[in-house]
Amino acid sequence: MIREKRRYILIEASEPLDMDSGRHEFERDLHSALMAELGGIHYFAANPKFVLKLGSTAFIMKCSLIGFSDTVRAFAMIRSVGGRELGFYTLKSSGTIRALKASAPIGTGSNKS
């Protein structure tokens, strides 16, 4: 069996995300927005998943290597999530979560002093 290759994407939102009270709602709305931008076939090929929240505006998503470029483009095109105006910026991508945590923006609580 061949293992699927993944890419992890560090993404920053234009405004603070309120995921503490409704993380599952935010994830559902985010996946709906991605599905609308990518279309059904590309969405299921990319298989995007929410991995980790880093601070108030940054988070990590994972996707398949095949759908990586489509996923990055889709995040650039998303303008609202769940009726809320938001913009997303791809800061970095990597093959491991550890590398993304090390390069997370200051203020996310992941950088060591």
How does this model look, in words?
- The chain is of the alpha+beta class and 113 residues long.
- It is built from four helices and six strands; from the N terminus they run βααββαβββα.
- Helix 1 crosses helix 2 (40-46).
Keywords:
35% helix, Alpha-Beta Plaits, two-stranded antiparallel sheet, 4-stranded antiparallel sheet, 6 strands
Note the main sheet: 4 strands, antiparallel
Structural class: alpha+beta
Q: Enumerate the spans where pLDDT stays under 50 for 5 or more consecutive residues.
A: 109-113
Number of helices: 4
Strand order of the largest sheet: 2-3-1-6
The count of strands amounts to: 6
Tally of distinct domains: 1
- The overall pLDDT average reads 85
Would you list the SSEs in sequence order as H and E? EHHEEHEEEH
CATH level-two architecture: 2-Layer Sandwich
The value of Rg in angstroms is 14 Å
SSE map:
Blueprint: E1 6-13, H1 23-38, H2 40-46, E2 49-54, E3 58-64, H3 68-77, E4 80-81, E5 84-85, E6 88-94, H4 97-102
Brief digest:
It is built from 4 helices and 6 strands; from the N terminus they run βααββαβββα. It has helices at residues 23-38, 40-46, 68-77, 97-102; strands at 6-13, 49-54, 58-64, 80-81, 84-85, 88-94.
